Amino acid sequence: MNLSPAAPRVSKVFVLAGAVTLLAGVALAPQRAWANLLLVSYFLLGVGLAGIFFVALHYASGASWHVAFRRVPEAMSAVLPFAAAGLAAVFVFRWSLYPWTMGEKHAEGFQGIWLNFPFFLLRAGVYFLLWILFAGAIVKISRRQDQDGDAAHTRRNIRLSVIFLIVFAFTVWLASYDWIMSLEQHWYSTIFGVYNFAGLFSSGLAALILLVAWLRRAGALRDFVTEKHFHDLGKLLFAFCTFWMYIWFSQYMLIWYANFTEESAYYVYRQHGFWRPLFFLNVALNWFVPFLALLPKATKRSASTVTKVAAVVLVGRWLDLYQMILPAVEPGPRPPFGVWEAGLVLGGIGLFLLVFTRAMRQAAPVPVRDPHLMESLHYHN
Q: How far apart are the C-alpha atoms of 320 and 314, rounded to whole Å?
């Protein structure tokens, strides 16, 4: 598979920069360093889960248009163990990010049962194990088909994907409550899990679009991916950015309308002072820009336009997570941004690219013996 020879070198430099930043941050600014490790790890986890969710969704629905580039979302899922390791490091070495672990804000009732630190760690381990095992099994069966062309592999993956989608729904919903919402123990939203899924999948689609476009330019997918594939990817990105906005507004509107102190404080703080521009920039990057840019049919068929919009959405996803995490662990009048944030973002990008390129080299870039490949290559919409 032809890829840019400079990519691994640049990726390793980024990983080194991220590692140095993390080590220095743990010594000099531990609260911000660990908070940003949580952010970047959760971001990467979302991209990896979105990749295998995309594959499983198409297996379960019987869709075939994606087969020509299916190896890309499969390879995206290879980052899951590394993202899980980053999150595990936060939970084990910096559990104080969560006030309820320190006894500062005692939990009562069911919350007291749920926010129990050993139980918290156990749940996290179960989530990680399920995601990694399902992703590994689906990808392994898919690649095995390249060897014998047996259509039975497709049937196995259909059954496995249906089970995974059910597991995915419950675990992603619960993990978002455990790892993000519990940073502010007494704030809650009943649709927070759905909101996180919307951001997870829209950012995963954005990453998928950028990677497919990169591999197409590099030659690995040049003869397999057409403007019609980009059209459907653009439609999905348009749809899920709009879905994100629908859930964002639903959450915000209900909290604003009810005006309960324990709920509204979350948004009051994030609309105060220097945080206010970021609050509206979040909406612009995650919905307003993609909505306007991808509304015309012609722009969705343009790989150049769709990739630019995808880059905007990825930045928006980082900002969305930044606004969920940093105000909770580093409250202050000014949003903290500096070397600790930038260095760990570079490290996350470098790690993902290294893992992704290694995973892509372990199999043919196209599932050449999949029975639906020809249908995907001659796809029309």
A: 10
Contact 182, 115 (CB under 8 A): yes
State how far the Cα of 81 lies from the Cα of 112, in Å rounded to an integer: 30
The residue among 38, 73, 40 whose CA lies nearest residue 59 is 73
**pTM exceeding 0.85:** yes
For the record, the structure tokens of 304 come out as 């150049």
CA 100 from centre of chain: 26
Sign, CA torsion 213/128/236/190? negative
Tens-digit pLDDT profile for residues 20-52: 999 999 999 999 999 999 999 999 999 999 999
Rounded distance between C-alpha atoms, residue 244 and residue 267, angstroms = 17
Residues whose CB is less than 8 angstroms from the CB of residue 193 and which lie 6 or more positions away in sequence, other chains included: 172, 173, 174, 176, 177
Exposure b/e, 289-302, CB count within 10 A at least 16 = b: bbeebbeeeebbbb
HEC readout, 331-370: CCCCCCCCHHHHHHHHHHHHHHHHHHHHHHCCCCCCCCCC
**Would you state the structure tokens that stand for residue 371, as one six-digit string?**
């029975």
Cα 288 to Cα 291: distance, rounded to the nearest angstrom: 5
- Among 179, 366, 204, 213, residue whose Cα is nearest residue 302: 213
